[in-house]
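**Folding the chain**
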Amino acid sequence: MKRILSMFILGLTLFATLAYGNESFRKSKCIHVLKLGVLGHDVDGLWSGFSRENGIDFNLEAILAPSLTLFGGALRPALGVSINDSGNTSKIYCDARWQYDFKMRLFISLGVGAALHNGATETNANNMKALGSHLLFHIPLEFGYYFAPDYSISVYFDHISNAYLSDHNEGLDTLGMRFGYRF
């Protein structure tokens, strides 16, 4: 628990440093948005259908600046990490993320990518998911609001699974809130 809390504090410090204190980094335009969130882990009743694991996930994500205009929105690469506070499944991920900004400061974002996790691939335990493979598909969905020109708050959902490419495919869903800073 102390290690996870230390990692979260380190991530928060990095977030604050990049968002507020480093003008040369902000001008380099390598990161478009940094997001920090608190997510419910393995939430029951969503895409996976049931819950076995517990805890809270601390999420840190960087949406990179290179973009491609597609269907009125922007397609960008995203890199992230979600660390579980209870020692259950944590993950790192890389996505292609499409975001559409509405005129009233609202936005929707969805994507597809890959996640690498430290959870079980096979298990009979009642408190762990059998995810089938360490490399999984990652599917995020986010609805948000820019409450200031560069600051956003959003509801974030993501799903990881192997899409039935393995015998075990219980999947895992997270749901929560994220704060974002746009450079």
